[in-house]
Write a structure and sequence with these properties.
With 536 residues, this protein is α/β, with parallel strands linked by helices. It is built from 16 helices and 29 strands. It has two domains: 3-205, Class I glutamine amidotransferase (GATase) domain (Rossmann fold), CATH 3.40.50; 227-529, Alpha-Beta Barrel (TIM Barrel). A hairpin with a 4-residue loop joins strand 25 (420-427) and strand 26. Helix 7 packs parallel to helix 8 (298-310), helix 10 packs across helix 12 and helix 14 packs across helix 16. Bound molecules: ligand 1PR.
Amino acid sequence: VDDDSVVTLLDYGAGNVRSVRNAIRSLGFDIKDVQTPEDIMNAKRLIFPGVGAFAAAMDVLNKKEMAEVLCAYIEKDRPFLGICLGLQLLFESSEENGPVKGLGLIPGVVGRFDSSNGFRVPHIGWNALQITEDSQILDDIGSRHVYFVHSYRAMPSDDNREWISSTCNYGENFIASVRRGNVHAVQFHPEKSGDVGLSILRRFLYPKCEITKKPPVQRKASKLAKRVIACLDVRTNDKGDLVVTKGDQYDVREHTKENEVRNLGKPVDLAGQYYLDGADEVSFLNITGFRDFPLGDLPMLQVLRYTSENVFVPLTVGGGIRDFTDGSGRYYSSLEVASEYFRSGADKVSIGSDAVYAAEEYLKTGVRSGKSSLEQISKVYGNQAVVVSIDPRRVYLKDPNDVVFKAIRVRNPGPNGEEYAWYQCTVNGGREGRPIGAYELAKAVEELGAGEILLNCIDCDGQGKGFDIDLIKLISDAVSIPVIASSGAGTVEHFSEVFLETNASAGLAAGIFHRKEVPIQSVKEHLLKTGIEVRM
Ligand code: 1PR
């Protein structure tokens, strides 16, 4: 293979870099993996997509005797692109489980975002950048948004000013990218930032390429954009095909004589279409995962692999993440199940039923056992990689003191004029109610390590009458991690309503997108007109 079309990739095996590989390949390059320190020195161009925790990454670099070589490579001004942790490691040290010493090429300490000022940590989502004049790889992007997911950040100072090529504001101005000569590093994820991200990678790989688009005029202030997420509920139909389905209040069967599972399309095709339509994220929920073991469900892994080849925004997958013993007695931990999902292209996993059991146990004992799937996966892959999906059902009450769970006054009274309700969590796709409320669950899973909450509502699912604003307000005010509002979207106004009246970070919909009733672009245009920042 011609050296000119090869990218050397420093992947030390701590997580999923499949999407970086896919993005590089989509730009016409082959990949050579670093096996030895010499491979770094011989690289024509080196990409370092740091994943996992700072200390673990430094440990691997030191053990493999790559830290010194990497510093030498960078000091020689050879073409380098660090991504996310690949930027942070260039600094002197990090406070992540530390202080831990870094490569020390850039003055400064990497610290945690301060969540006390009302900004949710992790910082997940799309932001525009303030770009300095001399950014080179960012020359195409202007005020367009890029995708971040991180809890730690490096701050600008007089000592590192000459390195900074862009900053981003998230409660404070932090370093979004650095550049010196041929050395670049970005805190955000170009491989997950749609066509903008691909154009950044392209400019790194082809430094002499012309600017493809005239960047739009720089806006004054940019906030974290509200995300619009397309969700695909996936299951095998009675013919054995994996299909995208959609329920009414979780009932996915047609009410005809055949009683078939509703079939709204093919998962990979629809996901690809939603990416092109401007979805900020795509979620797959394997809705029968609670009874079918997902690693036996190879088509779902295949769906992720194929999707991640062409979809360059974050992918979440949920369903069946739990410990499991198969027919032959082989035991699989939930961590193995999640790892397989990550290896196949998922950026986040979503846990439903198993998180309910974990929260119940935690509230009963008051002890974080560390054994739940939620705790184990977030320990290894980080909080930002773990979503908890809540499937609550409204239970109306005359008197809020009738239950021990958090009950609230609801805007639409119940069938017998009840003015209050609590939101009972369910497991197994809504089939079984559990003795825990959505409020109690949300707070517990945040403490157990969830990085985000996907908040459904069985009563609203598939109804097209709008999100459950009471529930979403309750939960998004109760936790400091991002909350995705889900269930009930029927019009573009439902999205502005949920963002204006609650602290939700994202709005998710399924039915209206599958049935092509409301295009994603219309939702975004409406939000923009309403003064809500979105990625266009
Ligand atoms: O319990 O860890 O195996 O996870 C199972 C996952 O599958 C959970 O995330 C659960 O929400 C989901 N699930 C299980 N059964 C169903 C079902 O519909 N029968 N789907 C199901 C949940 C809800 C949303 C839906 C929104 C928006 N679907 O994902 O997409 O309500 O719909 P809309 O815009 O059409 O109103 P585990």
